[in-house]
């Protein structure tokens, strides 16, 4: 039984499915906040790139095997996360910030200053 399970695990890891992460986008006057769900992904396994106003996110989750144990049941899927977002012109790509917390990747996409709403003062006469 253990040999079969291990072979199943090895076969699964060779054909990892590619999935789009669950995503949420919030917007304020200052920025967009893009949150992606990446369970089981270490920071070192996430790649973020911006090219021609396209933000690409790639990440791989890997379930570490315990060296002194044999796999009995392997139901945690190992997947390759892939997503691409076309950024509007009003995003300042040079100031994008990213942080990871509790299985979520949170990207802050600041808006360029010249496109933010501003209040116009009325001069007193």
Question: How would you describe the overall organization of this protein?
Answer:
By secondary structure, this protein is mostly beta strands. The protein has a single domain (2-64, 77-113), classed as Immunoglobulin-like (Sandwich). Helices cover 10% and strands 37% of the residues. The chain has 1 helix and 8 strands. It has one helix spanning 2-14; strands spanning 18-19, 23-27, 31-37, 46-51, 54-60, 80-86, 97-101, 104-110. The protein has a 4-stranded mixed β-sheet, with no helix packed on it. The chain has a 4-stranded antiparallel β-sheet with strand order 2-3-8-7, with no helix packed on it. The N and C termini lie far apart (89 Å).
CATH topology: Immunoglobulin-like
User: Could you say how many structural domains there are in total?
Assistant: 1
| Structural class label | mainly beta
Strand order of the largest sheet: 1-6-5-4
Number of distinct beta strands: 8
How would you concisely characterize the structure shown here?
With 125 residues, the chain is mainly beta. The chain is built from one helix and eight strands; from the N terminus they run H-E-E-E-E-E-E-E-E.
